[in-house]
Amino acid sequence: MFNKIVIAGVGLIGGSLGLALCKRNLANEVVGVEANKDNLDLAIRVGAVHSGATLAEALVGAELLILATPIGVALGVLEMALPYLSKGTIVTDVGSVKGRLVERAEAMLPAGIHFVGGHPMAGLEVAGVAGAREDLFEGASYLLTPTERTDRVALTRLKQLIEGLGAKPMELAYQEHDQAVAIISHLPHLLAAALVNTVSADTKEQLLLDLAAGGFRDTTRIAASNPMMWRDILLTNRSQVLEAIEKFREQLNLIEQGMLRFDSELLVGSLTRAQNVRSTLPENRKYCLRK
Ligand SMILES: NC(=O)c1ccc[n+]([C@@H]2O[C@H](COP(=O)([O-])OP(=O)(O)OC[C@H]3O[C@@H](n4cnc5c(N)ncnc54)[C@H](O)[C@@H]3O)[C@@H](O)[C@H]2O)c1
Ligand SMILES: O=C(O)C(=O)C[C@]1(C(=O)O)C=C[C@@H](O)C=C1
């Protein structure tokens, strides 16, 4: 579908995209631009990219540039790519927060180079191409955040590519995106970290960890993720995440009140609401998409 695709940052997400693009023949050529030589060598060995190059070399004749670096450097990479982008090239990213990146990318790019913000709602707690998986995006929603400036042909081409990955493209405004992911992705992450830290701050840490079973494991898997990636996410989406923490505090207070007052109705009400909603999520699927 695409002739040449450049992936800047061939880590977990860039590498998984590369594997899927190469294995599913969605591009004739996939070139990786990577800051870490070992990671790039591995990406070539496992077939996540056909070759590696500098941005300047890679972008010659490229139809699509995918920014898959950490959020903190994506705009810098885009700025460095500017002199080498040709008219008609589509640029997208995979960052977990959209507002700042979409606004700055649109302001930076000249007419004729088409930016569409993107965010695959799929991931793992490991970093680097070593953890990349061809099927990572299968069955996942893949969010796109077009604006009134977005080129419709570029948007359609990206949607087709996403469908080729086995994912479901979904459009939403970047403000709505950042608000939603603050609640369903960023809040869970910091709660998982806080939960693990509650155990590790206890004088009986080792005993507690030895006793921990499925409940602790299931609610804390994501606490093993890369702290630097999450620092970028939490600080880039700071105000939305702070609002989400406030909303969470209200729910926690409700449960605490139910317990302090032996208020069985309050307690059961809160737990039942959660049970009803959680049970609408499909059990045996990788992701939560309900249709
Ligand atoms: N991990 C997840 O679960 C997940 C899910 C969806 C989206 N994202 C987003 O994807 C992006 C990448 O995350 P990841 O998990 O793949 O991280 P990662 O650390 O696995 O990969 C990032 C890669 O970028 C490379 N890199 C860093 N600076 C670079 C530069 N200047 N030029 C070229 N390469 C550079 C790193 O060497 C690394 O290989 C982040 O923006 C993150 O928010 C992550
Ligand atoms: O499954 C995981 O390991 C993730 O945390 C992936 C996850 C999420 O589901 O919240 C985390 C951040 C990304 O922006 C998208 C997806």
TrEMBL record:
Keyword NAD among UniProt keywords: yes
Domain Prephenate/arogenate dehydrogenase: 3-289
Gene Ontology MF, one: NAD+ binding
InterPro entries referenced in this protein's UniProt entry, alphabetically: 6-PGluconate_DH-like_C_sf, NAD(P)-bd_dom_sf, PDH_C, PDH_N, Preph/Arog_dehydrog, Prephen_DH
Top EC category: oxidoreductase
Enzymatic reactions: prephenate + NAD(+) = 3-(4-hydroxyphenyl)pyruvate + CO2 + NADH
GO biological process, one term: tyrosine biosynthetic process
Gene3D superfamilies: 6-phosphogluconate dehydrogenase C-terminal like domain (1.10.3660.10), NAD(P)-binding Rossmann-like Domain (3.40.50.720)
Keyword Membrane on entry: no
This protein's pathway: Amino-acid biosynthesis; L-tyrosine biosynthesis; (4-hydroxyphenyl)pyruvate from prephenate (NAD(+) route): step 1/1
EC number: 1.3.1.12
Keywords: Amino-acid biosynthesis, Aromatic amino acid biosynthesis, NAD, Oxidoreductase, Tyrosine biosynthesis
UniProt family annotation: Belongs to the prephenate/arogenate dehydrogenase family.
Name of the protein this chain belongs to: Prephenate dehydrogenase
Lineage, broadest ranks: Bacteria, Bacillati, Bacillota, Clostridia, Eubacteriales
